[in-house]
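Forwarding the complex inputs:
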Amino acid sequence: MTEINLDKSSVRDLNVELQGGSSGDKFSVNNTVGKHALSVGLTTAVNVEINGHVGYYCAGMNQQANIVINGNAGPGLAENMMSGEVRVTGNASQYAAATAHGGLLVIEGDSSSRCGISMKGVNIVVGGNIGHMSAFMAQSGCLVVCGDAGDALGDSIYEAKIYVRGKVKSLGTDCIEKEMRDEHKKELKQLLSQSKMHHGIEEFRRYGSARKLYNFDIDQVDDY
Amino acid sequence: MCGIVGLFIKNPALESQLGALVAPMLSEMTERGPDSAGIAVYRNPQEDGCKITVLAQQPDFDWSTLETAVSNHFSLRDITVTRNHAVLCLDSAIEDVQDWMSDNWSDLSITSAGTNIEIFKGKGNPAEFIDQFDIKSMTGTHALGHTRMATESAITTEHSHPFSTGQDLCLVHNGSLSNHNRLRETLRKKGVQFKTDNDSEVAAGYLSWRLSEGDDLDQALNHAIEDLDGFYTFAIGTRDGFAVMRDPIGCKPAIMAETDDWAAMSSEYRAIATLPGAENARIWEPEPTQIYSWKRS
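Prediction (whole assembly, two chains):
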């Protein structure tokens, strides 16, 4: 285990060291005090444990690395993640996993607005609630919410799947509740198990695209 | 982009350290606002009297002439000059002082008026501002600070935040308003005066107008949600505390934290992280359009 103390090391030094790690290497990062862009651009299967709250863009562009944040995360967590796993034990601020292509993001607490905006294949599991405009223009991947969802969930959604256990304040344009078929139950069960969330799959509802915005329709011009 | 910080002291023993606690918060927000900085501090209440802060446009303004003139017209308790600002404490009715100032001292502007509030602001790096105004030695009950990155109007001291919105009230803003020009004209017709073309000053003027129409602060802020178009995180200082509100879209950041000793808000957690006990504070992100306020009981 290599310990990196941000009292002594700069953020740049931290990222250079983490990016140079080999698969299986373990790192512990301390004294984060809300700093930005921690543990970004990793491309190997290193294990990083970050102790403390982090600022903007933590774990951005992650590939393969397993990153645990023991604290809260600021805006843009795991933005454009490609693969690997990022877990936050606290809450995450807005646009977590925006545009992310793959991997798993687990937020044990709440996530605020625009969670999974334009997600392109990532799986996101949120233990608590999510804010408004989450999964806006979400293209593929799954967003699992164990608590409640805010306004305009899944607005202009493409083919991403949303599973919500609690209440949905409102659905966005072209997002509808859909039947939970066997393949969805299987997928949800696996995501809950992978993210260590202990809820029954029968407690969730599935939401997805009504596919009515895919082609321009003059009768729906107000929806665009 | 701008940075906002607010600190409300719950444990009176920490009031002597207000400036020492808020200065690092402000400094931490330098990257969000390197153009100018400002602070509203609430301290030294003037019972049965008033307090105003004035800003001189000329750096070499002769404060002794003001002191003599004020003493001839009013009962002046105290005048404290810090660079191009002076805080005047008087026995007189505040409206009389404000009217006399605007009639006779066109080269001075009033940055704050009330019994507790003092507002200081200046161009340049926040670190310089903190040193120049000796922020670290300030005592008081609560303070709001702002670091500005100008996006829509000039970088001058008068364009800097906080803006006064009435007696013992002030506003700091992170964001941009898109309907400020039209709203400014509407408010001018209602008698609200503006010193600059700054969008945040319009928000301050709007709140002043709503309050003068009889709204309480919550009602004024709820009206603001209807009438202000744009992005904003507002922090509003009051005599007894401060309030925070974000616009319905909520894309401008804000974070709040509280311990037994203090309550704080900032644009980013890293400013709050400078406070003692921050790592164990209750921390949350304010919901859009919800008004959060702290008040001395």
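Chain B touches chain A through 17 residues (CB under 8 Å).
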